[in-house]
Structure formats: structure tokens, C-alpha cells
Amino acid sequence: FYPEHFLDDEGRYRSSPYLIPFLIGRRSCVGESLARMEIVLFFTAIMQRYRVRPAPESAAKKDDILRGHMGSLRVPGDYRLIFSRR
After folding, report:
1. Measured between alpha carbons, how far is 14 from 85 in angstroms, rounded to an integer?
2. Rounded to the nearest 5 degrees, what angle is found at the Cα of 13, between the Cα atoms of 11 and 14?
């Protein structure tokens, strides 16, 4: 990887007609918008049918869960939930 390929003489970004990032053009996922809508619909259906609350042992560790694990991404800690029908 050579960043110089994407910089002009003054060090500013220069777009290249040969670089096509993923998620645009013919490389984009056709079903991405459908998948996003389905996730919202599934989550909404779960929240309408169930009452969600933390398990007693998880409630005590709330600060640890919110702190999570740092890496290239921030990952929340393990958390147990109780789903009960409304």
C-alpha cells in the first residue's frame, strides 16, 4: 500500500478512477438495505412481544459490561437477559 498513489504534489487526496471501494457500484450488496430493514422489523417484533430485563447476576456487573473490551472495535462484555412474554 502506497499512500502516495492517492496524494497530489501538495499532499492532498486525489481520487483515482481505478479505485472503487466496496459498497458502491457493482460491488455493493444488493440485499443490504433489505437486510437492514429486516433487522429493524425483527427487533421491533421481539420488543413488542417480550419484556426484556437483565438477569439478577448481570445487573450487579453493569459497570463491567459497559466498560467492555477494547481492541480494533469496542466489544461490550457478556450480559444475560430474561425474556418474558408480555
Report:
1. 56
2. 110
Q: What residues make up the domain containing 79?
A: 3-85
34 vs 68, higher pLDDT: 34
For the cut 80, the answer to whether the pLDDT of residue 53 exceeds it is yes
Nearest by Cα to 15 from 24, 27, 23, 6: 6
Residues paired with residue 69 on neighbouring β-strands, in sequence order: 75
Query: In terms of C-beta density within 10 A (0-12 exposed, 13-18 middle, 19 or more buried), how is residue 77 classed?
Result: middle
- Is 13 known to sit in a ligand binding site? no
Q: How many domains does the chain have?
A: 1
Name the grid cell of 66: 459497559
